[in-house]
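Long-time lurker, first post. I've been practising inverse folding by hand and with some scripts of my own, and I keep getting stuck on stretches where the structure tokens seem ambiguous. Below is the full token string for one chain I'm working on. Before anyone asks, I'm not after the true native sequence, just a reasonable design that respects the backbone. If someone could post their per-position residues I'd love to compare against what I wrote down in my notebook.
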């Protein structure tokens, strides 16, 4: 896992700083084995505008972009799909239910309609959850809401691996990843905080 997720800039504190959770859950191992053996996998995404294609396009930030103050598409998901294809010859079928300005409660109420209906869940290998900047930082409120969403995801896609991708906004101090990391550890899901991994490098001008 660590060798596959290395960033280009050497940073010995990376793994400690990022609050990365590398799961021991068998679901993640099974997901990778199925993907490598079959040459494909199905992924569902629930999250906010970053996963919907805003704010994360390569080459946009900090330069101006025709979309306005916020960059638009292809987002980190396009890079992830490209990595699977080039590094492992694996194709990714994406069902992107991300909606800008929404949080876990919205996804909880509308999950199946967002990501392709009730029948698709049995075919999903991986679910990405991205709500760190769309949820409040008070974990007494944010934690239970995310836990309800996780219960809904389990019922919809019982065999899927789950990864929290905790993104950040340069001008937005909200970071609910501190509320999600304990859930990832407790339930055996993967979690990566880009707030901790990437923002310090941007602030130092390294990236």
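-- Answer (accepted) --
I ran through it position by position. Result:
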């Amino acid at each position: 896992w660590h060798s596959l997720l290395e960033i280009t800039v050497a940073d010995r504190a990376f793994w400690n700083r990022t609050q990365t959770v590398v799961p021991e859950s068998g679901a993640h191992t099974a997901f990778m084995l199925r993907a490598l053996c079959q040459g494909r996998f199905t992924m569902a995404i629930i999250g906010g505008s970053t996963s919907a294609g805003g704010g994360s396009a390569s080459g946009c930030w900090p330069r101006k972009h025709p979309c306005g103050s916020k960059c638009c598409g292809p987002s980190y998901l396009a890079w992830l799909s490209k990595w699977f294809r080039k590094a492992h010859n694996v194709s990714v079928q994406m069902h992107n239910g991300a909606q800008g300005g929404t949080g876990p409660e919205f996804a909880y109420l509308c999950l199946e309609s967002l990501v392709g209906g009730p029948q698709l869940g049995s075919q999903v290998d991986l679910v990405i959850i991205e709500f760190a900047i769309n949820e409040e930082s008070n974990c007494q409120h944010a934690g239970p809401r995310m836990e309800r969403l996780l219960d809904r995801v389990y019922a919809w896609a019982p065999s899927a691996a789950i990864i929290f991708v905790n993104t950040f906004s340069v001008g937005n101090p909200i970071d609910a990843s501190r509320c999600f990391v304990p859930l990832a550890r407790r339930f055996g899901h993967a979690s990566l905080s880009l707030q901790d991994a990437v923002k310090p490098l941007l602030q130092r001008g390294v990236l």
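A couple of notes from the structure itself: Residues 1-10, 57-68 have pLDDT under 50 and may be disordered. The chain is about 40% helix and 15% strand. Happy to go over any region you disagree with.
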